[in-house]
Amino acid sequence: MQDDLITPTPSAYTYPLLVKQLLLNALSVHGDQEITYRGELRYSLRQFRERVGQLASMLTGLDVRHGATVAVMDWDSHRYLESYFAIPMMGATLFTVNVRLSAQQILYTLNDARAEIVLVHADFVPVLEEIKAELKSVRKVVVLGDGEAVPASKLPVAGEYEALMARAAADFEFPDFDERTRAATFYTTGTTGDPKGVAYSHRDIVMHAMATAMSLCAPRDGQRLHREDVYMPITPMFHVLAWGMPYIAVMLGLKTVLPGRYVPERLVRLRQSEKVTFSHCVPTILQMVLQAADAQGQDLSGWKLITGGSALPPALCEAALDRGMDVFTAYGMSETGPIVSLAQLPPGYKPKDRKEEVRMRCSTGRPVPFVDFRVVDESMNDVARDGKQQGEIVLRSPFLTQGYTGKPEASEELWAGGYLHTQDIAVMTPDGFVQIVDRIKDVIKTGGEWVSSIEVESLIMDVAGVQECAVVGVRDEKWGERPMAFVVRTADASVGGEAIRDRLMQHVELKRISKYAVPELDRIAFVAEIPKTSVGKINKKLLRERVAHLLDELAGTGQESAAVDRAAA
Fold first, then answer.
1. Which of 188, 265, 481, 541 is catalytic?
2. Catalytic: 7?
3. pTM recorded for the entire structure
4. Which homologous superfamily is 19-194 in?
5. Where do the domains of the chain lie?
6. What's the pLDDT tens digit per position in 215-230?
7. Is 284 assigned a catalytic role?
8. Residue 550 has what pLDDT?
9. Secondary structure string (H, E, C) spanning 281-301
10. Which CDD domains does the record associate with it (predicted)?
11. Lowest-pLDDT choice from 16-30, 40-54, 517-531
12. What superfamily would CATH give domain 444-568?
């Protein structure tokens, strides 16, 4: 027995870090703060706590016990926020279902998570009906709606959400239990095989909220969050718990606006009518918001917005800054909580020009508190902080997932050597700022050099008339791989491949990129849209597969260049 451990007084309360503790200060100090759904339904934070109690009582009436899993399939709503708290606070596991997956993938995740109850919006009832016969553990379904009647269904429907809530008691007493208890789970689709389950404990969620809030609330001016902000998530609440931000908003007692299904025009209207000042989203959503605001003539100045999920193109960052937005990036993964770094400008920072400021805002940023953030070589040695030497980002922190559910081999690979491996290649500067160069699987190996697809994309995005771009490596008999660019033009633009190549060659002459980074003319494809994953990221895996498949078809025919046109189609 160690004699240096503190022995608690018998009557002392050992305070567990549970999700319910995030409500304490907010209820005590900000109980009258408002939560609104689409600007149509409004109630106070104090009433929110009552509804959290009602939801727990309702689920208890459906025989949900400690350790059970309750799945949610909904748009971003007040119901989802209630589920974020009630389900883990009663000792059950919240399972946020990715409603953008295929029906068969949703079936796999529901069965793998052993979900017993599903809270499902009426929009997604047909999906459950399609897979009903193969569901292994679902006992009851609660239908969520926005005032419409519950559709007839052969599912085991327990009732409609609000009707069941009205009959449930609000004074549910949430117990204490071990802070390491599983609080939430979701599935990351990755690049191969079945989706992998990622789980977070109560301690993980609380520590992530504290660390992220510390970073966001620390700056005096700019890239910050404070108690007078009005918060609206634009990252789906099924995706990594909406980056953990709803927990922070409730913890700080912020007015919270839940927009429902993401419709750019509605988001812009809610931004104005509810005076939203703080949001987060992926770059593709930001692009749509800017277009909707321009169409409506809406002012976006004063809107602080974090982007993540994929690199923020400098041109898009500039477009947001031009509209008065305070945009900056966050970095993380489904497995990291997710936020482990933020691109907040340093105190007293005075950029030499706009280009430098944009580069800083688009960078991976600096670590948030409690994160051991390293950039290492293949031997796990730290690379030089010179902004040039590349290495993989590896992490430790008190809120990283401990592994994938039921996948010990993948979990060991994730945590090889006692650090979580991100598979992201980056450089670090002397002041601790990090810049991701590429994903390990997305680096293009050509002509004996490694080409960053992210950097080439960024340079192509600077060409007038380019709205969106994705660059992938495609096989080449001579060079191993060569870059291929998929480009979406802006409306009415006529930019061609020659203009893109000319601009890239200018950067070659300036020694910013290698000549091997410039796609050949027949490797620049103009497309109507670029495929996205279920969470809005560019689906490079699908692009690579399309081109590889077509190259296989055309091998030896002398028509390999036709693969570009057919892949674009």
1. 188
2. no
3. 0.84
4. ANL, N-terminal domain (3.40.50.12780)
5. 19-194, 203-439, 444-568
6. 999 999 999 999 999 9
7. no
8. 64
9. ECHHHHHHHHHHHHHHCCCCC
10. ttLC_FACS_AlkK_like
11. 517-531
12. ANL, C-terminal domain (3.30.300.30)
